[in-house]
Amino acid sequence: MKQSLPTRFKPSTVSSIVALSLTLSSSLSFAQEAEQEGRLETITVTAQKRAQNLQEVPVSVTAFTGDEMAEAVIKDMYDLQTNVPGLGAFQSQSATNSSFSIRGVGTSSQNFGLESSVGLYVDGVYRARQNSMINNLVDVAAVEVLRGPQGTLFGKNTPSGAILVSTVKPSHDGGDGFVEATVGNYGLVNLSGAMSFSAIEDVLAFRATAFSSERDGTISDVNLGEDTLNDRDRWGARLQALYTPNDDVSLRIIADYSEIDEICCGAPVQLNNDKLSADGTPGSDLLLGSPLFGATILRGENFYDREVALSILPVSTMEDTGISAELNWNLDDNYTFVSISAYRAFDSYDEIDTDFIDADLFFTGNDAEQSSFSQEFRLDYTGDKLNYILGAYYFSQEIDLVYNIDTQSQFSRFFDVAVLPALQASPLAGIFNGLNGISALTGGFIAPLAPGSGEGFSFTHLAQQEHSSYAIFGQFDYQITDELTLTTGIRYTDEEKDLSTIYRELDPTGQQLIHADFGAAGAALANIGAALTVGNAPSSADLQAIAPLQTAGWGFPFVTANTSPRSNIVENLKDDQVSGTLKLSYQPNRDTLLYASYGTGYKSGGTNTDRIAEGFNPIFDAETSESFELGIKKDFREYDFRINAAAHYTTVEDFQANTFTGGGFNLQNAGDYEISGFEVEATWLPVDSVEVNLAWAFVDAEYKTFLAGNCWVAYTWHTGIDDPGRKNAGDSFCNRSGDRPGGEPKNYAVISVKKDFELSDGVYSYIQGDFSHTSEVILDGSNDPYAIQDSYNVVNLRFFMNFEEMDMDVVIWARNLLDEEYINRTNFNTPIQDGKLNAYMAEPATFGVTVKKRF
């Protein structure tokens, strides 16, 4: 099937506050319909679970067709964010740890007990794990990004918005098949293809899709190889059947499978600590770089050399599979019954060199399995003045997680030089000396103090969760007048979670460590000394009290919270919530839509599956949100100009914050979170052959209350200036109220300019350049002054050619053409190495050629 090549509106973009203000103030003066049709394209979306013109939907939506994504070489969600104002998509610790945010509200995927703030849907099926959405977007019909709470129609875990992906359906007509190949720098090779075929004419059709993606890494390890980290090695396939026995019934069955097996992700050194701290403590680079350890110390000033030095490469593997069935039955001219059933399974394994240096200290492994079943029933009604959707939804999932921190051969040495001296200078020295003295007095009959740590110790937790959720919902659109429509919606959700976590601290033989009670040990030593003085034998109870100190591993609780003992968790959580929406939209003519909306969102609670610091409740409550939005969508057909804009204000209660503490994460309800801002998207076709798109998102996000957040580490270590959020000296947590969240810029803007031209008869082409600007980004949750990424600019360029007779496209493209160097929204304090920072960098300049042949 030959591709039609109309001038397209690409909804990626926007103007400025001035343009927005002028548009809002002058929109009514252009209320009369233009006599000429203009060249602006009609875009169909399903943001309200029925097909509608984007310009008539009272929701802030950005939508792309599959052709637009292919031409823009958007291969995954990370590429997509370039063209969607207000969307954030980034990975950090591993390829399978992805985070998505909309309007400054997002969720880290680093903790398996935490659910997404952005609802993720593929062909109407909810994806419970964010990580399942990171693979290549292939054979896609459309992608829609909905901003703001979508709780009524899309349910829980959509307090900030939703992303809807629709794949290409099977067809009987043929001509919708393709093969596509991409080659690029860093050894990139992407292959994909799809085709439909009719088994029974107009009754049964099938479609098969497959893809693979391979690329060398973009970060080198000085010991383990060049271009080894941040590679790509992924593939997948999808098989569909579409059964249409008559004009009123269709049944679509989809089965899919995908894999990722990559070495990811590299985090080069951003800041060294190869000196004494402000209080005189030697930095870890001084210790680990000494002959005692022989580690390679890479310099922070060489961060953009894209090099790391590790003892093991980070492993990221994932399998994602599922099957779904969608039934659409037109009962009559007004009613349609819809059923969507799905089963999905997601397995991942990550292995990380957690000390981020080539000293053999410790590493982590994370083995996670998740399976889910969902069922949605809907009754859709379409009338003259009233449209409504009534539905019921069921979702269940099971989660199994095994996470371990294992010590390596040099950990004991590190403990002895970095941890033990502080303990020997503390009141505990009396216990240590007392035990060694008694051992000497008894000629070693009573064993002395054992090593505080060692190789081969494992700190493991096994988490399990069974989760069921039920919901009923309804949304009604009533046309009060020809111009005025009222939308109301409500959803009731009832859910239950059975959760358990078992924590184990194992010695090299696999036996459970017995942890020391230093108070009891001190008293026991006094009793033993007194008994020996008068020639009596020590009591068995006193000998048992000191036994943990005579066993290697007693010192691990002084290293980090993640090597400390924790009580097991067995919980049953029940919750029910009502969410809803209220909208009023005014459409005085076909080219203008004004709307005001109120919506609520909900994200369920759960348990922290990591080892958290003492004093934190392992249970976190549900997160709820309220959002207000004012929007305008306006076409000026006589000027071939379109502008869509929305201003929003959102408050989040019991915001679920997940903060890195070195080797693990503290997950808690931070308190209240406030976001305000706006998005503007516009397109202008000044002449037949030129298209200009502009986009701008402004997001002002702030913690209103967050009393137990992370404290500055690196800045205080280097300067001696304490975190102003620390209430009392010695507090391990600080007040982050009034601070910005990490990873979210205040301003993001992109401008795209496209010029069409004809190279020769039958060869249509265009060249397009994109320029994006991202303002300053806070890189961590503590707002450490050393955790700031300055603003940066990125340029993308592509040259597109369509050969009509061959029905073939060729795209020559470059992303980050000028090789802008910047941190990809996240840095962190290196585990157990205070004063040192590592960070995840963005991809360098990439370029290549994509060829797509249709048949």
UniProtKB/TrEMBL annotation:
The keyword Signal applies. Residues 1-31 form the signal peptide. It holds the Pfam family Plug. One of its GO terms (cellular component) is cell outer membrane. Keywords: Cell outer membrane, Ion transport, Iron, Iron transport, Membrane, Receptor, Signal, TonB box, Transmembrane, Transmembrane beta strand, Transport. Residues 300-817 form the TonB-dependent receptor-like beta-barrel domain. It is found in: Cell outer membrane. SUPFAM superfamilies: Porins (SSF56935). Residues 54-162 form the TonB-dependent receptor plug domain. Belongs to the TonB-dependent receptor family. PANTHER family: FERRICHROME IRON RECEPTOR-RELATED, TONB-DEPENDENT OUTER MEMBRANE RECEPTOR. This is TonB-dependent receptor. It comes from Paraglaciecola psychrophila 170.
